[in-house]
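Can't paste images in this forum, so I'm doing it all in text. The chain is below; anyone willing to post the predicted structure tokens underneath?
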Amino acid sequence: MLALSVFAAAGCASAGSRGGGASPAAEMPAAGMSAAAPTPDPRVGLKAGWFNAGQAIWNLDVVSMTPPSKDFINPSTPGDDRLVNSDLAFLGNYVIQGNYSGMQIWDISNPGKPSLRAAYICPGSQSDVSVYGHLLFVSAEATSGRIDCGLQGVKDTVSSDRARGIRIYDISDISHPKSLTIVQTCRGSHTNTLIADPKDPENVYIYVSGSAPVRPADELPGCSGGQMSQDPNTALFRIEVIQVPLAHPEQAHIVSSPRIFGGLAPAARHGDSPEDSVALDKMLAHAGYTRAMFAKLFAGGPTQCHDITAYPAVGLAGGACGGYGLLLDIRDAAHPVRISQVTDSNMAAWHSVTFNNDGTKILFSDEWGGGSQPRCRATDRHEWGADAIYTLANGTMTFQSYYKMSAPQTVTENCVAHNGSLIPIPGRDVMVQGWYQGGISVFDWTDGQHPREVAYFDRGPLDSTKLVLAGYWSAYWYNGFIVGSEIARGLDLFQLKASGLISQNEIDAAKTAKLTYLNVQGQPQYTWPASFVLARAYLDQLNRSNGISHDRSAAIAAALHHAEQLKGAERQTALTALGTQLDGDAQNAGDAAKVRLLSAAVKDLAKAQS
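Text version of the structure:
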């Protein structure tokens, strides 16, 4: 632990921002910065270990690595499945980290040394978290979870002590979360999605995705696990929508149960890899199953979503649901309606969803193997356990390509696509994503047909002799930092490092898109305040793509530098003139759209001077 702390402190230095007095030449992309990843790939063959595993990093800087707090770590058993760190939510300077046994709340005011504000023990798995104002929402799914958060579990088949659904806490005093209520659901809550409907400021809504078996009606009246043909009120083939009155959150209740899966047939899925086929046969034989019996268990159409990402700014949500990627209309947040769907036999376990910032593309991840299996081996197909990228227009999703973290991992490393988020680099679609023990991958999918990795971090396996669950459950951008929830190793913070693929101006512009809170599955739309660094970010992109001539780029950089030295009306006049010139440049530029973005940024900056 001491060695870890020393390493964390050593990694605190961040890539600094250039000041306004930089010379025109400094606005050009950094000369000599490579756009090529190191070869051979240093992620291959890393030394195993818990806190002393080998590391490989490219185009990122480590800011801090914080081990789990004492109540959420088992020194004798690395990877203890009762102490699995799960997903993240953000509020101000706090990171709320879910865990199968509760949650930890970290203060990252000093990102180089996060401090623990609360360690809240409440078993129930998987403790997916969302936050809004002074309210915290936590998913509970395990049959052993108790309303009173007791450690003794629930042994009875039917029990009034069992908690499966959404726990709601008051975190006005964030060091002492106060339980308000639990909204019980028939299948519990594997994940949850918070929607703040701009048309309904008095309520927020929670979409509940529950994948566990239906609980007995004797425990929760109205619960039934029958087929639609047998029981039109079955708890299958639907999601739950919880309405939370902000003035009285203790009155939260299920307001609708939309059947968004109507008419969907079983989706085609790929078979097992040769290694996994042998392993499955052995497992089935041991359990007394035949292949036919096993297949029958998964013969129906989708009955539930694994995860839903709502994007209220465009009135849409994407659902990763039982072999399908769904597109939902959420303009009436309480009553989502399915618009369209896609399926793909290369996708085995549709897991999570990300929109690009302008809502013209959508990405679905595939958690093939359920997150606990090695799916990034050299023998695994690139299209399996990957991300599928689609364009999105008029409710139609059109496939573009797959993206997969490319470094082969070992058989003792659980690795597959998992949770990630956009990095708000203006003018580009860049995303960071956790790949369990495949590490963190940052990639650019602006060109949906040709996604490209631009940065990464990886550790060696937790154990070189057997597979022990570990790695990044999620990796999200939040106000200038990449924050990773490491299942067994704690909370990690990184910063992007300038390279031939991402300039310092682009990184600094991304940092200006500040949020007061973040639930990644309630995706925010990023906006950027007028600034010189925003204009320079667009100019760097034009230079990188040769979207404008070198001479004209140099002249624009000089004009920006000159305007920055001025004040008040003189600055406004200079920027207005530059904006007019850029409108003319756009007519003949190689990348006219990007020049228009630059022009708009310059004009907005001019208006900001008045």
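The first helix runs from residue 2 to 10. The first strand starts at residue 55 and ends at 58.
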